[in-house]
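Dear colleague,

As promised, here are the two records you asked about, laid out in our usual form so they can be pasted straight into your sheet.

NAME FIELD: protein one
SEQUENCE, THEN STRUCTURE:
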Amino acid sequence: MKKPIAKRVLIALVTPALLLASPAAVIAQENDPDPKDGYQNPEESLKDELTSTAESHGWTFEEAEAQYRVAEAIGEIAARIAPERLDVFVGTALSEKPGGTPTLYVKGEADSFVHEVIKESGLDVIVADQQPFSFLELEDRNERLNRELTEIGFSDLSSGFDITAEGVITAELAANPELPSDPEEILKKLSEEFQKGVQLTVSDKLGNTAEHGYGGMAAYVGGTFNCTTGWTVINARGVTGVSTAGHCTGINQAWQPGHGFIPLTFQQQHRGYWGDMEWHTTPGHVDRAEFYAHPNTRRDTLSVEPWWGFTVGESICMFGRSTNVRKCGLDVQNPWWSCTLDGFYTQSLVRMNGDVTIGGDSGGGWSWNNRAYGSHVGDCSWQNVFSRVDDMNEAIGVSVLTQ
């Protein structure tokens, strides 16, 4: 496969000290309660996030701050380029060095529009163009590969693509005594297009696991703790409620700290192309655009991360009511992943570079500062995966409620 050419756009990196407030979190509610009452304003939230990220990564606070600043900047570049160049946009990745030069991946040759957006940003960016596939083409390629593997007889699988390696698809298959176990033999059974750019492995165990008011509340089935609510949501008719994972079957109550149990009424579920999600209304209760980031600490929900904003190497935090501790030690590894969970072929997942959750965290929110990123699902190939909340409308007909 032809090696892509990485072009460096030599623009001076903006260096003033970062102010502790994210672009989407400039103004909090005027009537927000005092922080001592269990609330963090956006500035406090960001400081909390950076402190935790620095500790878990072995960085200084300043290094975590620098990495965050670059992640926000390359995210803004992606937000301008992706909608205008869906046919060539592949994705973005951060440097392993905190605050280092990020990379933008582009199918074919980057045109003048791409270069102009980068120039206007004032950010030093490596442009890795001449990539073979766009992000959307990689999604389709991954789905078609899994369809062929399923037709051969492999019903339990885990796969996704690596945008930093020319879109190579990694697929792990559960061993079947009636089917070949040699990856090379399996590849020969696939279409010609999959004879390159695909890495297959066969394993005895895949590590695919679906881990069994306000967002971030403990959710119950008949008084038994089961999952975690993720986000306050709203549908097109203005009806509000809360989300959780689609595999959290039978949820009918949630526990709100300082209040007690509140009833939940099931509305809609999806387990498939758009991930693993469902939502419930909360009869007789007012739903606010807030979520629990810690056991007794809430934050405003101010924005939602779009699908093109997931940058490889970007830190995202997770809070579930089973671990009951906010975890900020994982980074995005694959902005698209799919695997078989409880017999459901589940797609559009984001896979992180490790596992920090346990059973009962399902449905909990993946977030950063005041921004909603995902709804926890479980593990694919032993690594945490979550559904993108940007896909909620397609999946279950609601969107995250923001202020």
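NAME FIELD: protein two
SEQUENCE, THEN STRUCTURE:
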Amino acid sequence: MKGLRGLAWLLVLQSVGELLSRGLSLPLPGPVVGLVLLLAALRFPLVREPVAECANFLLSHLSLLFIPVGVGVMTHLGLLAQYGGRMLAVIALSTWIGLAVTATVLHWPARRDKAEARD
């Protein structure tokens, strides 16, 4: 029962986020606003405990969420054969770019601290 309450909290916060996003013409999508609201709401045990139980249930069944993706790939094997190499190259390149940017951003404060320590 607690898990259903957690799912209800998730849906309510996403709906409120959608309403705020559309009503205030925010440049963020509604689910993102809902996640920010969820982050704030997780400070309260009334929300945190049911959402934790719901999250544990969803994580234990996470593999089921990959079935639609697998079916989609199987139904579009022709497109995958035609564009698969390009898609693989784009995915690999974008992954490496993301890793490089992340490493640079994480390394930047350390270099700045070393430069300040020398001064």
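A couple of things worth noting about protein two: The helical segments are 2-23, 30-41, 45-60, 67-75, 77-118. The chain has a mean pLDDT of 90.

Best,
R.
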